[in-house]
UniProtKB/TrEMBL annotation:
Residues 13-179 form the Acyltransferase domain. The chain crosses the membrane at residues 12-33, 45-65, 85-103, 131-150, 162-180. Pfam families: Acyl_transf_3. This is Acyltransferase family protein. InterPro entries: Acyl_transf_3_dom. The keyword Cell cycle does not apply. It comes from Levilactobacillus fujinensis. The keyword Transmembrane helix applies. Keywords: Acyltransferase, Membrane, Transferase, Transmembrane, Transmembrane helix. One of its GO terms (molecular function) is acyltransferase activity.
Length: 224
């Protein structure tokens, strides 16, 4: 007679639950703003919407935390990557192809018009709004050896403080660059920057990705 092992929820499970709830909340709030009653309360709704914009880093860090907990003994990389390819890579590939071929109108930013742009849309997660989460998860999967290495290294309080302090500095510099790029550059400087960048629209999700990677290091340290 087999006895099922009791699974205990960890911080990662709670983070994923909160993130999924917040994603649904954003959809409800966005729909609410299209109604007359919602437009009359646009300020509080907008504030609530902004307050729950933590979904991307929370979801990714939740996955990382759970993965770190369940891989106390680092698995062989070939086995791990092969498993993640079947679990995450193949579904992402098929869903991306489905969106690009069947629903190309839902592409984010500039739609693909060439083969190169088509391939790039498959890589960067812009084939559909929510596919970017898959892209971030794939990034975390590829970076898992780094997180495992950090866990092995950050075994003392001194090293953990150095790691967290360095992460905080890098995060602050990244946020400063993001803020400067979006709010400080104006007038002729903005036009010059747009011309040099080829009139590329800055993607706000870069900030979310930066936050996810920075907080992932903190998550790794807390799990060490």
């Amino acid at each position: 007679m087999k006895i099922k092992e009791k699974q205990i929820a960890d911080v990662g499970d709670y983070l994923k639950a909160f993130a999924c709830t917040a994603v649904m909340g954003q959809t409800v709030l966005s729909l609410g703003l299209t109604t007359a009653a919602g437009q009359a309360q646009d300020v509080p709704i907008t504030l609530i919407y902004a307050a729950i914009k933590f979904t991307a880093p929370a979801f990714i860090c939740g996955i990382l935390f759970s993965t770190m907990r369940t891989t106390t003994l680092q698995p062989a990389l070939s086995k791990y990557y092969r498993q993640q390819w079947h679990v995450l890579g193949v579904p992402t590939l098929w869903w991306t192809l489905a969106y690009l071929l069947i629903l190309p109108s839902v592409q984010q930013h500039r739609p693909a018009r060439t083969i190169g742009q088509f391939i790039w849309q498959m890589i960067n997660g812009n084939a559909a709004p929510h596919l970017w989460y898959n892209t971030m998860m794939l990034q975390m999967v590829l970076l898992m050896p780094i997180w495992w290495g950090i866990r092995r290294w950050a075994t003392t309080v001194r090293r953990q403080c150095v790691l967290l302090g360095g992460t905080a500095i890098i995060y602050a510099l990244g946020m400063q660059a993001y803020t400067y790029r979006n709010h400080v550059v104006s007038g002729m400087a903005a036009r010059s920057a747009m011309a040099l960048a080829g009139d590329t629209v800055f993607d706000h999700r870069w900030c979310d990705n930066w936050l996810a990677n920075a907080t992932s290091i903190a998550t790794t340290v807390s799990d060490a």
